[in-house]
Design a protein that fits this description.
- This protein is mostly helical.
- Helix 1 runs antiparallel to helix 2.
- The protein is elongated.
- The protein has one domain.
- 4% of the residues are buried.
Length: 139
């Protein structure tokens, strides 16, 4: 940013396509690296739960309890992954000084329809009254 100044937008409030693509790839790359480390750690933690869930020597009640705990752990791990991606995304956009409205407009303009659907579904899912504990607005 010191070399080129702040990002410019067009009349539709979209970033320049190259700026968008490079920022998007940075978010994805950092997220994937952190996700790799997080998953490796989480899989180690779940390994013994997985073994207890499917051991032949355990009684049915123990297996059921271990499977329940394993599934709950998987859900917790998935939420950690979502939170991690959101943190990286927000951190990078803040650092490069791109606001959400410009970023969302640019995603709609430059990403394939399938990727847009995934992003919108993720935002909707995260705002579900069953999983979202913050203030709920029309957005």
């Amino acid at each position: 940013m010191k070399k080129h100044g702040s990002f410019k937008v067009d009349g539709n409030q979209n970033l320049n396509e190259l700026d968008f693509t490079q920022t998007y790839e940075l978010i994805e790359s950092v997220s994937r690296l952190e996700l790799f480390v997080l998953r490796k750690d989480n899989e180690k933690k779940r390994h013994s739960l997985f073994q207890k869930s499917f051991q032949e020597g355990s009684d049915d009640i123990s297996k059921f309890s271990a499977r329940k705990e394993y599934i709950e752990r998987v859900w917790t791990d998935i939420q950690q992954e979502i939170d991690n991606y959101k943190r990286v995304y927000e951190q990078i956009l803040k650092r490069v000084k791109i606001n959400d409205a410009v970023w969302n407009n640019s995603m709609d303009a430059y990403l394939p329809a399938g990727e847009q659907y995934i992003r919108k579904a993720l935002r909707f899912s995260l705002s579900s009254p069953f999983t979202f504990s913050g203030n709920q607005s029309e957005e």
